[in-house]
């Protein structure tokens, strides 16, 4: 008993030493790791990010080509099976289909299964060419031209022998909804990342300068901030949609919308940073840094902003779903990204029709991914906020 007690005391002592010698990042991760809800949301978020990043590899067919499967337009989801009334199969399979008009459905096109003809699932099949981690910058009229891709391939995770498989079904033009959903996740995350990065940099610079220097500089910057906050978003986007030329490529529209979302999304975080720095700039540790000869940028970057880490983190994480929702809303009402670009908002345009609700319920699958993506960001943001707050465990 004595040795067990001494061993337990030694373990406790090591734990205390590890706690007091740990860095801020290690302490934040330790507290975040203890939040089960946040960890589950983090795993779900990472999973969806990987799905979007490797969407071309996971998608068996090119989601931008209309009429990819003309014989399976508005087709229901096809889930692989291992057995049916004809017996068991070690290889998963789906049924072949045929498309015909039926008098029972007022001569509308109807897709029926051929239950006596199996199409077996295959892994690592070859189909359309794609690029992952692709960078293409081409300035017309100049010699500036960059076209680089880390991965060039035509290998896809799965397919079927002698036919096509659509896990989430197809839309009215025969496009594969599974592939479109994965590419839409990537597009929405890319728009959100670029928009958040722009707004984050602007908020740090404008809020930091206004809060640290104060005076007339603060007054001018706050007038600019308030002016941007009062601009109504919907009329602004309608005007921008009318301004964008029809001949712009999908990539140009993508970057334009991302930049606009970033330019109007920074005032809230900038005001929070400014308010915090106004109260912190008179503290003794700031005065000590200034007496040691530290520059204003060094004081803001190394002393003031780290004391505001928890608020910055949660604002960033909440800004991601805001940017994704903004892009989705714009595309949903026809002011954002359009075909052939796949985004969650563009896919959700199809669910606004009554015919879809009655006959093609699988059109709502992208909506489920959109909700899961937003909730994952919110839960991860809440978990990071609590983990970055050193007093979160003492609040009652």
Write up what this structure looks like.
The protein has 2 domains: 78-165, no CATH class; 181-394, MetI-like fold, CATH 1.10.3720.10. The chain has 15 helices and 4 strands. A hairpin with a 6-residue loop joins strand 3 (108-138) and strand 4 (145-160). A 4-stranded antiparallel sheet has the order 1-2-3-4. The protein has 396 residues and is an alpha+beta fold. Helix 3 packs across helix 5 (177-213) and helix 10 runs antiparallel to helix 11 (296-304).
Q: Determine Rg (CA atoms, Å).
A: 27 Å
Number of domains: 2
Uncertain parts: none
Query: In sequence order, what are the helices and strands, one letter per element?
Result: HHHHEEEEHHHHHHHHHHH
Q: What fraction of the residues are assigned to beta strands by DSSP?
A: 15-25%
Number of helices: 15
Q: Which architecture of the largest domain per CATH?
A: Orthogonal Bundle
From the N-terminal CA to the C-terminal CA, the straight-line distance is: 37 Å
Strand arrangement, largest sheet?
A: 1-2-3-4
The class by helix and strand makeup works out as: alpha+beta
Largest sheet: 4 strands, antiparallel
Shape from CA axes? elongated
In percent, how helical is the residue content? Answer: 55-70%
Q: Give a count of the beta strands, DSSP E runs of length 2 or more.
A: 4
CATH topology of the largest domain: MetI-like fold
Q: Give the CATH class of the largest domain.
A: Mainly Alpha
Average pLDDT confidence is: 79
CATH homolog superfamily of the largest domain: MetI-like
């Amino acid at each position: 008993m004595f040795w067990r007690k001494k061993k337990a005391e030694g373990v406790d002592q090591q734990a205390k030493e590890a706690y007091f010698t740990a860095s801020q990042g290690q302490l934040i991760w330790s507290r975040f790791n203890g939040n089960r809800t946040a960890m589950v949301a983090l795993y779900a978020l990472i999973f969806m990010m990987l799905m979007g990043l490797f969407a071309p590899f996971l998608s068996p067919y090119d989601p931008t080509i209309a009429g990819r499967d003309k014989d399976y337009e508005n087709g229901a989801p096809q889930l692989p099976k291992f057995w049916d009334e004809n017996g068991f199969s070690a290889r998963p399979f789906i049924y072949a289909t045929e498309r015909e008009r039926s008098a029972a459905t007022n001569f509308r096109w109807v897709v029926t299964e051929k239950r006596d003809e199996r199409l077996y699932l295959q892994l690592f099949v070859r189909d359309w060419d794609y690029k992952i981690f692709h960078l293409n910058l081409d300035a017309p009229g100049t010699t500036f031209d960059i076209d680089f891709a880390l991965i060039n391939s035509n290998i896809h995770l799965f397919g079927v022998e002698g036919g096509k498989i659509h896990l989430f079904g197809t839309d009215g033009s025969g496009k594969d909804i599974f592939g479109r959903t994965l590419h839409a996740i990537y597009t929405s995350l890319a728009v959100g990342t670029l928009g958040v990065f722009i707004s984050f940099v602007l908020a740090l610079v404008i809020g930091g300068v206004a809060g640290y220097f104060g005076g007339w500089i603060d007054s001018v910057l706050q007038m600019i901030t308030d002016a941007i906050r009062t601009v109504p978003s919907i009329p602004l986007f309608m005007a921008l949609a009318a301004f964008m030329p029809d001949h712009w490529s999908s990539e140009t529209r993508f970057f334009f919308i991302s930049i606009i979302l970033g330019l109007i999304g920074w005032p809230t975080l900038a005001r929070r940073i400014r308010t915090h720095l106004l109260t912190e700039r008179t503290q003794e540790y700031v005065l000590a840094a200034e007496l040691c000869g530290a520059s204003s940028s060094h004081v803001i970057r190394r002393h003031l902003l780290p004391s505001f880490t928890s608020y910055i983190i949660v604002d960033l994480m909440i800004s991601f779903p805001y940017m994704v929702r903004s892009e989705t809303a714009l595309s949903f009402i026809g002011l954002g990204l359009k075909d052939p670009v796949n985004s969650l908002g563009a896919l959700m345009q199809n669910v606004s029709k009554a015919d879809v609700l009655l006959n093609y319920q699988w059109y709502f699958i992208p909506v489920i991914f959109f909700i899961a993506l937003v909730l994952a960001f919110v839960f991860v943001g809440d978990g990071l906020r609590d983990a970055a707050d050193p007093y979160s465990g003492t609040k009652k």
